[in-house]
Structure formats: structure tokens, C-alpha cells
């Protein structure tokens, strides 16, 4: 089941992300999972769409507090 | 005959009694040492909800893989939206799917830390597929 998931993910997100996916998949085989690893994963899973939009705006050189930034952030509230 | 501490050399009944007592003590101690891990470790594993390291690693790696790929796909989609290469119309719908996925993933991680049988629950996989599918339709095949 799990290999099918990985293959399906690679097929959907495209080959450029395949390396990231496979690295995650093969990381520390056999080793027990540390508390820090769980915390890091939980931190990733706790990010909202709006937080990610703000991060991507900053990466693109757009101030999230600007009018343009606010317009993008308003879109990413996630309510249809 | 004087005892030199070795039971094999003791001839007197008193010495034999001491030796037997010593043997019994050693036997008790050995049994205690042998049984201690058996009696203490399994309850600790149950309390801690641990699985074998490899099973837990499989769960973690699967969840981390699904999270990383969904996050990367959503971030790449946002980059296209910000760059004006993809219309903004579908951003609320895609974001709603993404937020739902994140909530399910948070629950799955919490469960996986203690005890789960599935490497990644089917609802998390389905939610990830929902995000990726909505991104694909929002892009309109312009990957």
C-alpha cells in the first residue's frame, strides 16, 4: 500500500519533486523516530493555507501587509 | 576441614547449609534479573504506545512523504498564482482542501506517535489526493 502511495504522489506532483519524496521515504530506515522528528512534522502539518501564502508572497518579494499582499491573503482564507 | 568459600570443599553440614543458602540467593537474583526486563519492558512499551522502530519509522516516513509532497505541490501552485500564471479563482477551493488535509494530517501524526496500524490512514491519503486533484484542475492541465 505504501509504495503505491509514493508512486502515485510522484505521478501527481511531477518528477521535479520525486527526489524530495524519495529522500523522505528512505530517510533513516530502521532507526526509531525521535521526538524532534515528530515535532518537525507536526510543525509542517500545522501550517495553514494563509500562512503558506504569506511565506510565498515574501519569497516573491511582495509584502503581505501591502494592498496586493492583502488581496492574495484574502483569497487564501480557504472559504468557498 | 576448613572451608575456603567453595561449596565443593565443604564437608560439614553447617557449611553445606550456608552454600545452599548462597546458591538460593544467587538463583533468586538471577531469576530476578532475567524476569525484570520481561516484567518491566512490555508494560512500558504498552504505556508508551511504542511499536517496533521499523514499523514506527514506516509510519513516520509515509506521513512525512505525503505531507512534504502535498505542501510542495500547494506551494508551487501558490507561486504560479502569485506570478499570475494561474487564475486566482480556484485559490479559495484549493486552500480549503489544503486546510482540511492539514487538519487530518495533524490528527494522523498525533495517533501515529502512540499507536496506529496503518502507515498512513486512508482519509489522509484521500485528502492529499483531493488537494493535488484540485490543484491540477485549477492549473487546467498547464503543468
- Tally of helical runs of chain A: 5
Distance between the termini of chain A: 33 Å
Main sheet makeup of chain B? none
| Helix/sheet category of chain A | mainly alpha
What structural category arises from helix and sheet content of chain B? mainly alpha
CA gyration radius of chain A, whole angstroms: 17 Å
Largest sheet of chain A: none
What is the oligomer described by this structure? heterodimer
Order of helices and strands of chain A: HHHHH
Measured as a percent range, the helix fraction of chain A is 55-70%
Query: What is the arithmetic mean of pLDDT of chain A?
Result: 82
Inertia-based shape of chain B: rod-shaped
Strand content of chain A: under 5%
Counting DSSP H or I runs of 4 or more residues, the number of helices of chain B is 4
Descriptors:
heterodimer, A: 80 residues, mainly alpha, 65% helix, elongated, B: 143 residues, 76% helix, disordered N terminus
Describe the model.
The complex is a heterodimer of chains A (80) and B (143). By secondary structure, chain A is an all-alpha fold. Chain A has 5 helices and no strands. In chain A, α1 packs antiparallel against α2. The mean pLDDT of chain A is 82. Chain B is mainly alpha-helical. Chain B is built from 4 helices and no strands. The radius of gyration of chain B is 32 Å and the shape is rod-shaped. Mean pLDDT of chain B is 72; it is low at 1-8 and 29-51. At the A-B interface, α1, α2, α3 and α4 of A face α2, α3 and α4 of B.
In short:
The complex is a heterodimer of chains A (80) and B (143). Chain A is mainly α and 80 residues long.
Structural topology:
The complex is a heterodimer of chains A (80) and B (143).
Chain A: H1 2-13, H2 18-26, H3 35-45, H4 49-59, H5 67-75
Helix pairs in contact in A: 1-2, 4-5
Chain B: H1 13-48, H2 53-82, H3 91-114, H4 122-139
Helix pairs in contact in B: 2-3, 2-4, 3-4
Amino acid at each position: 500500500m505504501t509504495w503505491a502511495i509514493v508512486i502515485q504522489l510522484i505521478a501527481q506532483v511531477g518528477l521535479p519533486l520525486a527526489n524530495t519524496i524519495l529522500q523522505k521515504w528512505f530517510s533513516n530506515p530502521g532507526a526509531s523516530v525521535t521526538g524532534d522528528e515528530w515535532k518537525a512534522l507536526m510543525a509542517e502539518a500545522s501550517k495553514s493555507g494563509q500562512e503558506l501564502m504569506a511565506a510565498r508572497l515574501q519569497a516573491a518579494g511582495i509584502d503581505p501587509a501591502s494592498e496586493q499582499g492583502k488581496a492574495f491573503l484574502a483569497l487564501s482564507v480557504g472559504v468557498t | 576441614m576448613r572451608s575456603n568459600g567453595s561449596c565443593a570443599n565443604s564437608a560439614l553440614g553447617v557449611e553445606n547449609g550456608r552454600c545452599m543458602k548462597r546458591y538460593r540467593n544467587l538463583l533468586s537474583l538471577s531469576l530476578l534479573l532475567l524476569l525484570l526486563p520481561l516484567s518491566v519492558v512490555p508494560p512500558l512499551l504498552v504505556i508508551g504506545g511504542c511499536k517496533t522502530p521499523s514499523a514506527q519509522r514506516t509510519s513516520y516516513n509515509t506521513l512525512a512523504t505525503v505531507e512534504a509532497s502535498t505542501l510542495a505541490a500547494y506551494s508551487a501552485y501558490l507561486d504560479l498564482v502569485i506570478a499570475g500564471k494561474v487564475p486566482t479563482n480556484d485559490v479559495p477551493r484549493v486552500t480549503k482542501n489544503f486546510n482540511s488535509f492539514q487538519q487530518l494530517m495533524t490528527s494522523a501524526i498525533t495517533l501515529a506517535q502512540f499507536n496506529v496500524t496503518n502507515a498512513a490512514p486512508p482519509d489522509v491519503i484521500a485528502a492529499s489526493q483531493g488537494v493535488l486533484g484540485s490543484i491540477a484542475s485549477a492549473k487546467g492541465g498547464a503543468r
